[in-house]
Amino acid sequence: MGQKVHPVGFRLGYIKTHNSKWFSKKEYAKLLHEDLKIRSFIKKKLAHAGISKVEIERAGDNVKINIHSARPGIVIGKRGVDVENLKVDLQELTENQLYLNIIEVKNPEQNAQLVAEAIALQLERKTAFRRVMKKAISLAMQSGALGIKVCCSGRLGGAEIARTEWLKDGRIPLHTIRADIDYGFTEALTTYGRIGVKVWVFKKEIFISKKKEKIEAKETEKTKQADQIKETTSGKETDENVDAKESEVS
User: Fold this and answer.
1) What pLDDT shows up at residue 114?
2) E strand or H helix at 228, and its extent?
3) Residue 68 and residue 43: Cα distance in Å, rounded?
4) How many whole angstroms from its chain centre is CA 74?
5) Which pLDDT tens digit goes with each residue over 82-140?
6) Three-class SS of residue 77?
7) Which residues of the chain have pLDDT under 50?
8) Residue 249's pLDDT is what?
């Protein structure tokens, strides 16, 4: 059988980073379960707000939560009432001081998690699965994605025998580490069983080595300029000393 590697885990440390940023030796299990509770609570409470990602950062006794939402207005509410209530609810899940940030997802058509959730919602409403998949693909390609692949698996169309169907457009270079590929997964809870939805979106290629070379070149130029300035200043100082000695002699 085909062995699949998670597209985000495959790129960690190169073009992707962890959604949880903290380190602990003694309280690792406790903090891990705390993160899971926070994420599941946010997903349940803000299911209608298009939550694509929840980032958690810990430093000392502080917890910073970044919620990436396609509809930040729904999360914040009128005059920030809803976000304050959410903060109070989340504070009950942790003993540490909590800080909350709401970040808008600027291009939801290219966000794999949001695309997968939109497909699952339409499948639950008993829309034809192929039509839903084709629509999602066309929207993503129109928004500027270089490629997209959608896979639906389960009792598609209420069939008694479960099967897997997938559609694809553009390029999806899964083995290219510099390719920025977003991955999303969710399940549609239909009346005839669960249908799994997976989405891969190829956004762009990130060339980190070229950026590093440019930065290094700039740094070398700066050091050269600093050395030249030092040489000129030292030369001026020696000339001034010579002039002073000549004047003393005279």
Assistant:
1) 92
2) helix 208-249
3) 11
4) 21
5) 888 888 888 888 888 888 888 888 888 989 999 999 999 999 998 898 999 999 999 99
6) coil
7) none
8) 58
Give the H/E segment covering residue 85: helix 81-91
Label residue 31 left, alpha or beta by phi (over 0 means left) and psi (-120 to 50 means alpha).
alpha
- Residue 26 backbone phi and psi in degrees, to 5: -80, -35
Q: Residue 17, Cβ neighbours under 10 Å: how many?
A: 12
3-state secondary structure of 74: helix
Nearest to 38 by CA among 26, 24, 27, 53: 53
With beta carbons less than 8 A apart as the criterion, state whether 157 and 128 touch.
yes
CA distance 121 to 62: 36
Of how many residues is the chain composed?
A: 250
| SS3 of residue 236 by DSSP | helix
CA distance 38 to 17: 19
Chain centroid, CA 214 distance in Å: 25
By C-alpha distance, which of 84, 114, 116, 113 is closest to 100?
84
User: Residue 224, class by beta-carbon neighbours within 10 Å (0-12 exposed, 13-18 middle, 19+ buried)?
Assistant: exposed
Distance of alpha carbon 53 from the chain centroid: 7
How far apart CA 51 and CA 102 sit, in angstroms, is: 10
How far is the C-alpha of 111 from the C-alpha of 90, rounded, in Å?
25
Instruction: For residue 91, count other CB atoms closer than 10 A to its CB.
Output: 14
Q: What is the pTM of this model?
A: 0.77
Q: How far apart are CA 199 and CA 226, in angstroms?
A: 51
The answer to whether 186 and 116 have CB atoms below 8 angstroms apart is yes
